[in-house]
Specification:
alpha+beta; Aminopeptidase; 10 strands; binds coenzyme A; GNAT_dom; acyltransferase activity, transferring groups other than amino-acyl groups; MshD_Acetyltransferase; transferase
């Protein structure tokens, strides 16, 4: 999946970017972008506990590239269990984040394009709901609201009014209660070296 977008809001020559699946060669550029956009505190977030040692959900890691192919935006989603439902069964869901756009390219619609691409692909893959921790004033435009996550908790400190959810299947989170738990594929650990 890839979408080329001419951003119409720029008052100078329109800049062009493309949303595409992340590939292994993007990792260094993505991490550098996250450091620039979010600062060193990003690794202390409660969401990070659900991402550490995990691979993103299948097919749900995206980058935005400029015309030269440089990474200027990133978003990934992660498999989680969102508590249990009224029957006591685990509720599979996705955790979104981090979402970040290179500060030099903010306000061109790149964050919005990344969000819409991620939501559309999650829906196409049959997922039922997406959760995230972020500013409601930004994420409500994509359908994320705190009410949907009201009986769920993060595995660490979080602000209730910033803990938001979007149901991709109506009623998916009704009755869901409890703590989010990572449920995705594990990152392969490097082989342990043993002395001869
Ligand atoms: C938040 C972020 C991803 C937005 O990316 P972007 O490409 O600038 O977003 P868009 O161009 O799609 O949207 C810009 C609009 O969102 C608004 N916006 C940006 N951040 C916002 C926030 N935290 N709260 C409310 N509105 C916000 C802008 O004011 C702008 O509004 P307008 O359309 O009325 O002019 C980007 O600013 C960023 O990387 N910030 C640092 C990292 C971060 O906070 N990530 C989110 C937490 S996981």
């Amino acid at each position: 999946m890839a979408a080329v977008v001419d951003t119409p809001r720029a008052s100078f020559a329109p800049s062009t970017f493309v949303i595409a699946p992340e590939n292994p060669g993007d990792v260094v550029a993505r991490e550098s972008l996250l450091d620039r956009a979010m600062g060193p505190g990003r690794r202390r977030k409660s969401s990070e506990k659900l991402r550490r040692g995990q691979l993103p959900a299948e097919g749900l890691a995206f980058v935005a590239r400029d015309v030269d192919g440089h990474v200027i935006g990133t978003v990934r989603l992660w498999n989680v269990e969102a508590g249990v439902n009224r029957e006591g069964g685990a509720v599979p869901a996705l955790l979104l984040g981090p979402l970040a756009v290179d500060p030099a390219h903010e306000g061109k619609g790149i964050g919005g394009m990344l969000m819409r691409a991620a939501i559309e692909e999650a829906r196409n893959r049959g997922h039922g709901a997406i959760l995230l921790v972020g500013d409601a004033a930004y994420y409500e435009r994509f359908g994320f609201f705190a009410a949907r996550a009201q009986h769920l908790v993060m595995p660490g400190p979080f602000e209730r009014n910033r803990f938001l959810a979007l149901e991709l299947k109506e009623g998916w989170l009704v009755g869901a209660a409890g703590m989010l738990v990572a449920s995705g594929r594990k990152l392969a650990l490097p082989p342990v070296r043993r002395a001869a």
